[in-house]
Write a structure and sequence with these properties.
Glucose Oxidase, domain 1, 13-stranded mixed beta sheet, binds zinc ion
């Protein structure tokens, strides 16, 4: 009896000590892992050279094209070469848009620099008078009323410098929707980046084909046309185009780093591999892909085993409407696996993070700060400035719409890289090697901590909770416009 008491006493006293010691060693080990991740990336990162290779050898990565398929295979092989055993293609078949030819004549003179915008009709041949609709906002269309009908609307993609203060710009697809509403027969969108830069991207708010041809012309040409119209000259435009909208096959690429403990829980790190076809998409989203691949490489090089499965995903079809991520969500739901996705982290056109975005999951913010402090202990230059605002229009949206917690980067790239967004100028010369390395280091450390938390304090929301969450985040109206709102009034 006495002996037993002693043992119990010993247990009672030593247990907390044991827990404390093991907790301290855990923390120390965790900090060691972060240091190791940092060191591995600093000395052996392949992100920059991989991206250079991918952009120069493959070129663009349009979904459904031969180039796109080549990019899928390139990343598949890279995962394999890093030692990933579980690498899979997730094939899907969807309708996707692709340009064929376009021709623009202004007063019978051909304009060389022109591109079609996504989801323009499969075939169009229109010739009409051009009308200047300024910034293409509702107020601009309103002020012209019936005059737009039967004409070709000329709109600026941004907000013109001489506009009144405080105007809020809208997306090119929304300007196009207004042009259609006001009866225009075509729309010419003027790009805002000088130097003959042309932009593409969708002109459809819903992802379905639109009824009128939509094209983009250069800033210089556009300003020229505006001047002529202002001087009272009559301008006619002749737009001819053909495009394809057909069923294509494409593949997401998924590589899994298996869990050591919580084998049922998955953390997804994803980004879109596809690009538009005017350039090599080095920024959109080459930098995201190169960073994800290098985080995967780093973990394997260090032989790390996370508490939860980490799934690295290269999504295709993002540019044509988040096609690949929607397909993956559908697949997971069909398999009853969606509830096992604890978190989805997305990297799209972002990098050099100074923090992470909790995207409306306020309960995560203290943990984000804590993880950030650990990163700061490795590198004091890390700012640990976290944000908490949910947004749309990249692959995280497909997961967020199903109530899955998502996280993004609070990026800190130079402004100039964004001027070439969706344009023929988005190439490797814009990539900053140090910034790319910082993405791999900081996102790699953050993801590691997330995957190894004892408990994740935020959970998947059910159907009704997701509705409330999206309303609270102010996203309802935009989702309705895009035909994505599935909750009714
Ligand atoms: Zn993108």
């Amino acid at each position: 009896m006495k002996n037993k008491q002693k043992t119990i006493k010993l247990l009672i006293f030593s247990l907390p000590l044991f827990l404390l010691v093991s907790c301290v060693t855990d923390q120390k080990e965790e900090q060691n892992v972060l240091n190791a991740i940092n060191k591995e990336v600093q000395s052996n990162s392949k992100a920059y050279t991989n991206l250079e290779k991918m952009t120069s050898e493959i070129g663009h990565r349009l979904t459904g094209s031969d180039n796109g398929a080549e990019a899928e295979e390139y990343t598949y092989e890279l995962f394999k070469s890093y030692g990933y055993e579980d690498v899979q293609y997730h094939e899907f078949e969807v309708e996707a848009w692709a340009r064929d030819s376009v021709r623009l004549e202004i007063n019978k003179q051909e304009v060389e620099e022109v591109v079609s915008l996504g989801h323009s009709p499969v075939s169009a041949d229109v010739e009409h008078q051009v009308i200047d609709v300024n910034n293409g906002l509702r107020a601009d269309f309103d002020s012209l009323k019936n005059e737009v009908k039967g004409k070709i609307a000329l709109v600026y993609i941004g907000i013109l410098e001489d506009s009144p203060e405080g105007l809020k710009n809208i997306h090119r697809s929304e300007k196009t929707a207004l042009a259609i509403e006001y009866g225009a027969e075509g729309i010419i969108i003027i790009n805002q980046v000088p130097g003959g830069v042309l932009l593409t991207g969708t002109a459809s708010v819903t992802g379905s084909l639109i009824d009128i041809p939509a094209i983009c012309i250069s800033y210089e040409k556009g300003m020229d046309l505006k001047k002529q119209l202002k001087n009272g000259e009559e301008i006619s435009a002749h737009i001819q185009m053909s495009n394809k909208s057909e069923m294509i096959k494409s593949r997401n690429v998924i590589a899994t780093l298996p869990a050591k403990e919580k084998t049922n829980e998955n953390i997804i790190l994803g980004g879109h591999l596809d690009s538009w076809d005017l350039s090599t998409g080095a920024i959109d989203n080459g930098i995201g892909i190169a960073a994800i691949l290098d985080i995967a490489r780093t973990y394997k090089a260090l032989d790390l085993q996370p508490k939860r499965n980490i799934k690295f995903v290269m999504f295709m079809g993002e540019e044509q409407g988040l096609l690949g991520s929607k397909e993956m969500v559908k697949m997971l739901a069909d398999q009853g696996e969606l509830g096992n996705v604890s978190y989805m982290m997305n990297i799209d056109m972002s990098g050099n993070p100074k923090g992470f975005n909790a995207a409306g999951r306020t309960e995560m913010l203290p943990l984000f700060d804590e993880i950030g402090a650990k990163i700061q202990a490795v590198d004091s230059s890390y700012e640990n400035t976290n944000a908490n605002k949910a947004g749309l229009h990249s692959d995280h949206q497909s997961f967020m719409m199903e109530g899955v917690p998502v996280v993004g980067l609070v990026g800190n790239l130079e402004r100039k890289v964004y001027s070439y967004y969706h344009s023929n100028g988005d190439d490797f010369s814009l990539v900053n090697e140090e910034h790319l390395k910082n993405t791999v280091r900081f996102a790699g450390m953050f993801l590691w901590e997330l995957a190894n938390l004892e408990e994740i304090p935020t959970k998947k929301l059910d159907f009704e909770q997701t509705k409330d969450f999206l309303i609270e985040q102010g996203l309802k109206e935009e989702l309705e416009l895009g035909n994505e709102w599935k909750w009714g009034e």
